[in-house]
Design a protein that fits this description.
It is a single chain. This protein is mostly beta strands and 383 residues long. The protein has three domains: 109 residues, Chitinase A, domain 3 (Roll); 110 residues, Chitinase A, domain 3; 109 residues, Chitinase A, domain 3. Helices cover 9% and strands 33% of the residues. It is built from six helices and 21 strands. Strands 1, 2, 3, 4, 5, 6 and 7 form a seven-stranded antiparallel β-sheet that branches. Strands 8, 9, 10, 11, 12, 13 and 14 form a seven-stranded antiparallel β-sheet that branches. Strands 15, 16, 17, 18, 19, 20 and 21 form a seven-stranded antiparallel β-sheet that branches. It is globular, with a radius of gyration of 28 Å.
Amino acid sequence: MSLPAPEDVMAAPDDAIRTPSGLAYRVLQPGTSDERPAATAQVEVHYSGWMTNGEMFDSSVLRGAPARFPLDRVIAGWTEGLQLMSVGEKARFWIPGNLGYGDEPSGDGRPHGTLVFDVELLSFKNPPPPPETPEDLTAPPADAVTTDSGLVYRSLQAGDGGASPSASSKVHVHYTGWMAEGGRLFDSSVVRDEPISFGLDQVIPGWTEGLQLMTAGERARLWIPGNLAYGDEPSGGGRPHGTLVFDVELLSFTTPPPPPEAPEDLKSPPADAITTDSGLVYRVLQEGTSDASPVASSSVEVHYTGWMVSNGEMFDSSVVRDETITFALSQVIPGWTEGLQLMKTGEKARFWIPGDLAYGDSPSRPGFPYGTLVFDVELISFT
């Protein structure tokens, strides 16, 4: 199904307005205000797009759901064109290839050449202005605290005084970052008006350490030396270097439960464990809540923890990440494909999976488990 192309899809009419960049546009319906989005605004639009041969390649109208995106993360023709509109306005844009996806086919199915869009601007939100550069950017004040690692920290606003995150916590923050040398603002969730969430074990060491000094609701300034960030020398790609200064507000955090202990029967399945013809061994730890089981083509949602029998090392755990995982049984190791089909929703089971049903009996790459693996698995749901 597609929408008919506009009659003027092949070329902009004489009454269309042309900008210096080559963008052409025509207002189809006036808006309801004089305010326009900024280049970094978050916009909500309905749109349909055609190539000049009349082929429609995309439409939020047909999907029945408007699109939302920041204007600085789309093709140049959209960034420029939407800044000309007001809420409630409908416009038609003729966007040349150099402001879209190029003039030649790219091989990935994307449209090319001049693109024609009918766009309705439903709403937008301009971000706040960039935070001012701190006066103490290059010289932390006397009341700032320096840690053993060289991190410098100063609280700007007290938090709730409760617990602090741990190194494995997932945090939700607002932040702005400057390079101490030159004072360049290089990143800001405040400017984007989008707080960010991440695991403290997945970021630069200065963030991992610094956020553990804070409590929820606290705002702090961190001076992070290059060895705790991205290094002291430029690395290319525009990444910041040298000492970085961050103003961070810790909005909230969650800390996952401690890692499960290795089972006592890790190396030796008990007598009541069942061995299948393939060599898989399993034991029910908690009965399920239904009689139905997944099939080989099912998609399952599980919580799990896995250990290597050879050294008792825990190598992976959704429980530690505090995030269930969903996957198709046809896309995992044979031991999982077989074992999950023996389970029922709500059931917890322990599996001893030999190497030939997992990743082999010898190391295949650094950090990858091998040999017999033991998994504790809870089947949350399946389709």
